[in-house]
């Protein structure tokens, strides 16, 4: 909880979290140390962040799709199935706020979570106000990556031009 509180995410200061939010954060919040020590390498291998915005390094199994919310329930179930088929056990969801790299941040004020692949749709998306804010409000951009780096996506939920870059790799 200390890492979350130090993130300073607007609207989620001390005293504004209910018991369900606190339980959710204790289970799924990805602290900065975990992001930098484990997930940053996977993110760097999978994604490019340049002046024109994020892109995917692996072009072989990449699709550009219309965007919107981070996942629909059907997309999530497909993502889970494919992740498990590719040998993953968990995945991370990290908000993109313009960071240029994954080890040095100008701001810590961004959502970041790590979930086991056995998390249910309802637990992940609607078990508390924070989950609902992240997964059901199409106002943010996110990176999603499996713990083995073999499947992921970038979702830009811009109201005018929402898009998603999705990739999977058999190698």
TrEMBL record:
It comes from the Bacteria. This is Uncharacterized protein. It comes from Stenotrophomonas bentonitica.
């Amino acid at each position: 909880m200390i890492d979350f509180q130090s993130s300073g995410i607007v609207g989620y200061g001390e005293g504004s979290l209910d018991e369900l939010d606190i339980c959710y954060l204790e289970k799924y919040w990805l602290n900065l140390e975990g992001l930098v020590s484990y997930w940053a390498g996977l993110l760097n291998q999978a994604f490019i962040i340049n002046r024109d915005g994020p892109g995917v390094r692996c072009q072989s199994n990449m699709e550009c799709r219309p965007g919107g919310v981070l996942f629909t329930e059907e997309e999530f179930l497909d993502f889970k199935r494919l992740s498990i088929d590719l040998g993953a056990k968990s995945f991370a969801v990290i908000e993109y706020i313009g960071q240029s790299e994954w080890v040095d941040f100008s701001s810590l004020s961004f959502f970041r979570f790590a979930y086991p692949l056995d998390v249910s749709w309802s637990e992940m998306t609607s078990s508390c106000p924070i989950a609902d804010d992240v997964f059901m409000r199409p106002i943010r951009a996110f990176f999603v990556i499996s713990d083995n780096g073999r499947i992921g996506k970038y979702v830009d939920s811009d109201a005018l031009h929402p898009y998603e870059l999705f990739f999977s790799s058999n190698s």
